[in-house]
Amino acid sequence: MKQILLITDGCSNVGPSPIMAAAHALQEGITVNVVGVLDYGTIGELGGFEIQEIAKAGGGIHRIVGTPQLARTMQMMTRKTVVQTIQQAVNKEIQQILGGGALEDLPPDKRSQVVEVVDELAETSPLQVALLIDASASMKPKLGAVEEAIRDLMLSLKARAGSSRLAVFHFPGRGSGEDVVKDVDWTTDLDGARGLFHRLQMKGATPTGPALLKVIDYYRYGTLEGNQSWQGDSGQEEGMLGDYVV
After folding, report:
1. Domains plus CATH for the chain?
2. Choice between 47 and 62, residue whose per-residue pLDDT is larger
3. If we measure between CA atoms, which residue out of 81, 85, 79, 9 comes closest to residue 47?
4. InterPro entries annotated for this entry (predicted)?
């Protein structure tokens, strides 16, 4: 299961639309979830609308929170999205078996068995989370809360029975306004990802759309520079979830 978890205060102002970028991610089998850390006022309202639309286009969920609730919200969203993704895959299988039926059409005892399977798969299925951090100037006062939230998210991922791999990116980068910086490559050593905050310098504009597109490229090709190292997908499993990767 593949996710992008975007932390931002909204109001993208450089490059392509982040809503269109999130829709592209969904087409690639990547769910986009968004945690909005907003201020009050008109800018906060505009940012909130953008955050909602990004998550909607990316097939994910969004939450608007203040900094004290950020850590708990990120854990909840990640777990909720895993369960939601597996439910969608299971429902797809049930529809094929029942000829268009749904989980609610099953007898109560069968339905409870399916729910147990969903819960088990949510805990054991492999998970990839690309954490994308808005490091624009307006996010600078929120850095401490973001750091605490990411540490709690790592603890939550480590507690899963299944494999959890994390990669961390931030934007804007050091060069042009549309650059993205990879802070941590895909890793299961979640403790080793904690030193990234020493490298974050909150500055510049908010190129959310280009940043999302770069992370999609990274999922596909293993690089932020397009398809230079792409080797294809040859090991996909058959059966349930085999053709449904989110």
Report:
1. 2-221 (3.40.50.410)
2. 62
3. 9
4. vWFA_dom_sf
